[in-house]
Structure formats: C-alpha cells, structure tokens
Amino acid sequence: MKQIKKALPYITVSAMPFLAFAQGTGGVNNIVTNLSNLVNRIVPILLVIGTIVFLWGVIMFLTAGADEEKRANARSLMIYGLVGLFVMVAAWGIVGLLVGFTGTGNVPIPTNIGGINPI
C-alpha cells in the first residue's frame, strides 16, 4: 500500500498530457448550438404533451357535470396545460434570441409537429 501511495503522484503527473490532448475546441457558439439543437428536439414533444394535458382538462371539465370538485380539478389541469405551453414557447423564443445574438445559426419554426403540418 505504501508503494502505491508513493507511485500515485507520479502516475497522475504522467497522465496529465493525455488530459490536455483530450480537450476539444469549443466555446460559447458550440454551447449555444448544442442548446439550440436540444431545444429544437424537445420543444415539439413538450408542446404535444401540453396540448394533450389541456385537452384532457377540457374533456374532464365537460364531463364533470355539476360536481364542483371535478370542475375545479379540470380547470386547474387546463391552466397547467396552458402554462406549460406558454413556458415551452417562451423557452423556444429565448433560445432563438440567443442563437440570433451569437450568430450561430437560425432556429427553425417547428411546423411539422408529430407528422401534422398545420400550415
């Protein structure tokens, strides 16, 4: 064990050049591009989920009848769905602004969501 403790600093120092060669060339543009790619893949999925939550709340509200507790739960579900949609569109817009400010590319408008093209 003593020999390992003595040799460990030498092994660590001799391995440092390998760590230096492993570093990639990146910067703010690379980070913004990766963030843009991540958001462009996740936002359409989350928009669909938010729409489903909102529509499920509408269906629950319509089928609740006179039960005030069910109507309140459905109303809160609709609000959560709308807030989720707003947050996703806002996040997508913020990433679009970052990409525009840094000049790393353009953020496409997600028009073909889940195979449905609304345009």
From TrEMBL:
Keywords tagged on the record: Membrane, Signal, Transmembrane, Transmembrane helix
Keyword Ribosomal protein: no
Species of the source: Candidatus Giovannonibacteria bacterium RIFCSPLOWO2_12_FULL_44_15
Key word Membrane present: yes
Entry coiled-coil feature ranges: none
Membrane-crossing residue ranges in chain numbering: 38-65, 77-101
Alphabetized InterPro entries for the sequence: T4SS_pilin
Lineage of source species: Bacteria, Candidatus Giovannoniibacteriota
A Pfam family: T4SS_pilin
Signal peptide: 1-22
Protein name per Swiss-Prot or TrEMBL: Conjugal transfer protein TrbC
